[in-house]
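Handout, page 2. Input:
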Amino acid sequence: MNSPDNPSPTSQPPSPANQKAKASNRRSLLAAATACGLTSPARAVSASTGPSHQEDSKRLENPIVRENRQSGTLDWKIDKIQIEPTSKYRSPWIEGYASHASIRAGETLQIMISTSAPTKVQVDLFRLGYYAGLGGRRVGTYRDLPCKPQPLPSVGENRLMFCDWAPALEFAIPESWTSGVYLAKLTEGIEGLQSYVIFIVRDERRSDLTFQCSDHTWQAYNRWPSQYSLYDDGDNVWHWGNASRVSFSRPYGKYCQILDAPLSLGSGEFFLWEFPFAFWLEEQGYDVQYVSNTDTHRDPETAQRSRGFLSVGHDEYWTIEMFRHVQAAVESGTSVGFFSGNAVCGRVEWDEPTRSFRRTGVFGPPGGTREFHQMSDLKHERPYANELIGAHSTGPVTGGADWVCSAPQHWIYAGTGMQLGDRIPGLIGWEYHGDPAPIPGLEIVATGPTQSAPGVLNGGTYTATMYPGPKGNFVFNASTCWWADGLSAPPGYQSPSVYTSPKGVDHRVQKITRNILDRMIRPT
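Output:
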């Protein structure tokens, strides 16, 4: 069977007419690709590395540092978007999706594009990173690609929206492309409207750190074309049962929660909760590679290729395979950092031919998400998330708080100056972890009550935790979706505000993170 992020062209047989159209289109787009080629790197620009790493010759020569010496640009940002009012999330004038959530060098990527009328489309390709603070590097451009409207899919079983569009662009990922998060910026030729297609380039080298993008969760909240997320059952827009299924074979609509985020059109939730972490990692010169949730699902080696494995942002939806693979990585000596909130909460099962998943259970005990009564019909059985993370989602699930130091003697606080009870305002939100597991050696490093509004407690308690692994490694849990807000503010970033308001870059968050990552890389 095909892996969920690497389907073969025959995994969903197209209709004869569509197959003929695709073959003709493929010949033309391959010719266009040959004519256009990829842009060559421009003049090199040195990226900043943190002072604590300047003496580390290995780090100064790793692939991420070499990548960030190349010229950056702000051209990766979309600045002219339009949302269809009736759908609330969709831009039918220009939209698309990729054939792979994650892909390796040498493999062929297809980009499917639909426009509201026949027109020529420009596709600019960018890798996201630090690049002297500009946030992206242009790696290719394809011009004058002929595009036209492509059909909305019929609604499938469990409200599945599975697009079977002809590709507008097809190319092999160059060997020179460094692992990272990549954007195809689409610009249509009628009004110049724009949107994104997002994909991840992975590799299988050994590295210090692996950054897992939370794209299962991006897709779970993707309402494209209108009210077809994992949460829409046809009657309710916030449904927590198993009535719906979502596929990667469709565009990402504009993000639907917390804040108005124009850069989310076609890019899931990456810019909201994850980009500030990746931007800071690459500024600091860490040796990091990037993977999709689907990589952790399909390949048991994914979480073991690095000394440290990172879950970032809003990493809610996991398969049991992901859980077991990361659990095995901890047993083998890999350290794990859950710089995330609501992580490993919803249990999902994959259908590989349709690149889709459906919610089937909860990684927690009955009552662990007690206010969502619809979840009572789902399986609540071991393994529980807190047995891996150290704590997990528990009622009332949503809320915010200050990060309150409860273990100032712990090594994560070294160099921060933090004392017992010191606070980092608003850092916990909008979902968190509590109910710590009885793991030997587990320590609660920050804790406090959560609130539904400033000064209004909602009955929750968050716990940030640390526990030792079997081989000198460890598992850290930050207990918040918003940890990255304290690390950096890259171009286009919008700080969230609901329940509480994090205050942006904080040297204490940076130092705690550096302490944790450095010990992952060089355990004592």
